[in-house]
Amino acid sequence: MTTDTLSTTFAALADPTRRAILARLTSGEASVTELAQPFEMTLPAVSKHLKVLERAGLIARGREAQWRPCRLKAGPLKDADDWLERYRRFWEESFDRLDEYLGEIQKREKKQGHNTSQEKEDKDG
Amino acid sequence: MTTDTLSTTFAALADPTRRAILARLTSGEASVTELAQPFEMTLPAVSKHLKVLERAGLIARGREAQWRPCRLKAGPLKDADDWLERYRRFWEESFDRLDEYLGEIQKREKKQGHNTSQEKEDKDG
Fold first, then answer.
1. Would you say the pTM of this structure is higher than 0.80?
2. DSSP state, A71?
């Protein structure tokens, strides 16, 4: 149903087997048989995943009838990354807030630790 | 069918309306009615999208029965970004190659330009 490029990309990535296939292709071209090996899957099942990836422009396939090696095409991943870019500040802000919070806890603990040794000194002195 | 977190995230992002809802939430909390406004959609249709986003952990909703404002939760987007991270070098490499190619063309054009003026000098001299 989804026709826009970004939706097609995200839909193609919404499957662990397809993501594993892309991960495998980061180390170079591979045939369908090679790609099927690590998965307990029939060749037609793998071919179906490859078709989804190909339609999404995430892989390209060689033209030779017998040996049609697949290779990674990173363009749509860049577009997905560009989309995520604008949300980066939100998780960075969250981490900043977490940092602040942890900083405060540490300061408080340090202060408490200081107080404790101070009390000890007071007692000892 | 998909149960892993990353697949759930990508599936939730694979829809332009859901991405538009997230974009709206970058400027602050909003009620379902407010979120529905820019779309020509019924409230139940928008609610359905919100449920997908909520299940994916991309939004959180207030507890008040009447006014249940939605807010963005960027955590899963960070995980998606982390996944994309390892592919970054592939599109950067492609751009490097394009840069190299353009550089070569410019060098060649410069050389041709130089040759032309050299020829002119030869003629004039």
1. no
2. E
